[in-house]
Write a structure and sequence with these properties.
Number of helices: 3
Distance between the termini: 50 Å
Strand content: 35-45%
Structural class: alpha+beta
CATH class: Alpha Beta
Number of domains: 1
Order of helices and strands: HEHEEEEH
Largest sheet: 5 strands, mixed
CATH topology: Nuclear Transport Factor 2, Chain: A
Radius of gyration: 15 Å
CATH architecture: Roll
Length: about 140
């Protein structure tokens, strides 16, 4: 697949699986043995572990929406800078629902094989997220 085709796979995964909430569609974009190089706390292995994380995110933030802000593709890798938003309406990492809106920036580096995700590494502003939902105090001025 070309670099542009790989980038399109990632955009379709974001739109169909994450934004539309069709978690079961992940299998068409992700290998069963996908490796999360920086796993989410408590994330299990492979595709099923990824689906569990996505279900948890959608449960905590039912209006979850990822927006691709920038994407760079080279060889078998796609780097996507994104922002996600949602309303904290369910427990998240032990924090009960607050009803607060959040906006969280991040970058994900995906490596694809034969048009599907083989390994991935997401870096996101978890500290900022936890401050937005009140789990941590904001910095003193």
């Amino acid at each position: 697949m070309t670099t542009q085709e790989n980038a399109a796979v990632i955009r379709r995964f974001i739109e169909e699986t994450i934004n539309q909430g069709d978690i079961d569609s992940a299998g068409q974009f992700v290998w069963d043995d996908v490796v999360e190089l920086e796993p989410f706390p408590g994330q299990g292995p492979g595709l099923e572990g990824l689906k569990d994380v996505l279900r948890g995110m959608r449960s905590a933030f039912p209006d979850l929406r990822f927006l691709v802000q920038e994407q760079i593709a080279e060889g078998d890798k796609v780097v996507t800078r994104f922002e996600w938003s949602g309303t904290h309406q369910g427990e998240f990492l032990g924090v009960p629902a607050t009803g607060r809106p959040v906006r969280v920036w991040g970058v994900v580096i995906d490596r694809l094989e034969e048009g599907r995700l083989k390994d991935t590494r997401m870096i996101m502003d978890t500290l900022g997220l936890m401050m937005q939902i009140g789990a941590l105090p904001p910095p003193a001025h």
